[in-house]
Amino acid sequence: MKMIFRWHGPKDPINLQYINQIPGLYGIVSSLYDTPLGEVWPVDRITSLRDAAAAYGLKMDVVDSFRVHEDIKLGKPNREALIPQYIETLKNLAASGIKIVCYNFMPVFDWTRTQMEYQLPDGSNTLSFEASLVDRLDVSKGVIPLPGIGTKYPAEKLQALLEEYKDVSTEQMWKNLEWFLGKLVPVAEQLGLKLALHADDPPRSVFGLPRIIKNIEDHRRVLSIIDSPANGLTLCSGTIGSDLNNDVPSFINEFAARQRVHYVHLRNVKVFDNGDFYESAHPTQCGSLDMAEILKALHDANFTGYARPDHGRMIWGETGVPGYGLYDRALGIMYLQGLWEGIGKEKTKAVLQKQGPAAVA
Ligand SMILES: [Mn+2]
C-alpha cells in the first residue's frame, strides 16, 4: 500500500516540505483544479506539479478531480465534441508518468455536506451531513444555501442544469456512464492508465438528482460495463460507509481480489440512525467504521495500490481548506500505517508459529 496525501498545488496553504515531514509517505495526489471543465490538461502543467513534488522526494502517480463534463453525464449531443479533449488529457497524463486517474460520475455536485465546521466536543471541527436538511431544501430556483456547494454555477445556470437532470433517469445515467467508459477505457488501456471511479458522496439521492454509485451492486455493475483493469475503482471508506447498509470490508474482499481497486480513500465517519453523519477522526473508536477490519481486508487482498487519509478534522487551531488540513490527516496516516504494520507482523508471526518452535526462535 502506497500512502499518498492530497496537495492542491502551489496555492495550497500546506507546503510540500511539511507534507514530506510526515513519516512513511510515498507521494502526493493532485489535479489541475483550475482548468475549465472539459479543457485539455497541458503536459507542462501536470509535470510542473510532479516536479515540485519530486523536489521533496515525493512521487505523483495519481490524479484526482478528473472532472466529467455535465454534457457527458447528461448524455447531450455535445459529448461527442468533448471526448477528444478527454482523450488528449489522458495522453498527457500518461506522458507525465501518471498511472491512476480518479473521477466520479455525480451529477452537478462533487459531494454534499450541510456544515463545513461542525463542532465536536473537543473543540475541533469537521464536515457533516444532515439528511433532513438536504431533503427539505427547495433548490428549484438554483440557489442552494449550503456551504461549499452551489457557488460553482450562477443561480440561473444551476437552475437550468437541475431542470435538465429532471429528464434523466438513473437508468439513463448508467447508459451515459457506459458510453463514457466505452470511449475512454480502451484509450486508458493502451496508455497503461487505470481509471478509478469514486462513489457518490454521500451514497444517496440529493436534490432529486439521479445518483448511481451508491452500493455494492452499483460497483459490480460499473466493473461489468467493461472487464478491464483500466475500468477500476477508488474505494472511499467514508463515502460508502456513510450508509451503514454498506459493509466496507465486503467491497474490498470482492473488488480488490479482482484487482480492480486501484486507489483507496481511508477515513472514518460517525453515522447516526437517521442517516446523518460527521467525518470523525480516523481511529475506529471515533466513528462507526471498523478501520482495523478495513485495513485487514486490504492486507488480505495483498493490496499494493494507493491510499490517502482522505479528509481530516480541523484541529490545533488550524484553518484552511475544509477537510484538507495538515494535522489531522497526518495523524490519520500515522494511525493507518500503525494498523498496517501490526497486521503484517501478526501474519508473519502466525506463519512462523505454524512452522514450529524452531522457526519462531
Ligand atoms: Mn473520498
From TrEMBL:
This is Mannonate dehydratase. The gene is uxuA. Catalyzes the dehydration of D-mannonate. Its EC number is 4.2.1.8. It catalyses: D-mannonate = 2-dehydro-3-deoxy-D-gluconate + H2O. It comes from the Bacteria. InterPro entries: Man_deHydtase (IPR004628), Xyl_isomerase-like_sf (IPR036237). SUPFAM superfamilies: Xylose isomerase-like. Pathway: Carbohydrate metabolism; pentose and glucuronate interconversion. Belongs to the mannonate dehydratase family. Coiled coil: none annotated. The keyword Iron applies. Keywords: Iron, Lyase, Manganese. The keyword Glycoprotein does not apply. Its cofactor is Fe(2+); Mn(2+). It comes from Pseudomonas umsongensis.
